[in-house]
Design a protein that fits this description.
Elements: H1 2-22, H2 34-50, H3 55-71, H4 75-94, H5 102-113, H6 124-137, H7 142-154, H8 158-173, H9 179-195
């Protein structure tokens, strides 16, 4: 019984961090709160240390670090990008469907936005492969469509970009979503506005 209670307690901690992250005020301000982001990174590191074989814990930590790296590039950002990659890959090895399409989408996003060799691990072919996998897992996922739409936008393949970005927005309009998704949808709308100019 004690072991079951321990597992349950860890699951509660994982769920709490995920919910706090997705609804964080980080995504509600004009300027990102670096201090709050750093606290999320610390909390994620503690959680993964306590739960090294929990795919959800590794996935959440990877998501948080990937976002941090995308917002604060440089040596610190590249270091966290590598950690995020490793944690997302670890999560997928433990459970290939952890958080459905989200883990693949964010891992693909990392490969897309991180510099390539010799600076880091970025790779456009790998990014495309992972983003296509995210779509395969969930063709109607908001993030799978957003991330591959952004990928094609950055490659100036605007018809494909418009298709996926608009799909993501349409899906979001029909479903309740959270602060993190709202933050990403705003970027999608900005990309669409540039396409339509």
């Amino acid at each position: 019984m004690a072991q079951s209670l321990s597992v349950w307690a860890h699951d509660e901690a994982v769920s709490a961090l995920y919910e706090n992250w997705q609804n964080s005020t980080v995504f509600n301000s004009q300027e990102l709160d670096k201090g709050l982001l750093q606290q999320f990174v610390k909390d994620a590191q503690i959680l993964t240390k306590q739960n090294p074989n929990d795919p959800r814990a590794s996935a959440i930590s990877g998501l948080i670090k990937a976002f941090y790296a995308s917002q604060f590039p440089g040596i610190e950002g590249l270091k966290l990008a590598k950690q995020a990659r490793d944690e997302l890959q670890h999560a997928l090895r433990l459970d290939p469907l952890v958080f459905a399409e989200l883990t693949y989408a964010e891992l693909g996003h990392l490969y897309h936005n991180t510099p390539g060799w010799p600076f880091s691990f970025g790779s456009q072919p790998m990014a495309e492969k992972l983003l296509e996998k995210a779509l395969e897992v969930d063709p109607q996922g908001i993030m799978s469509n957003l991330r591959i739409g952004e990928y094609w936008f950055d490659h100036k393949a605007y018809p494909q970009a418009q298709k996926y970005l608009q799909t993501a927005i349409n899906i979001a309009d029909q479903n309740p979503h959270i602060s993190w998704i709202d933050f990403e949808l705003l970027r999608a709308k900005q990309m669409l506005a540039k396409i339509h100019k």
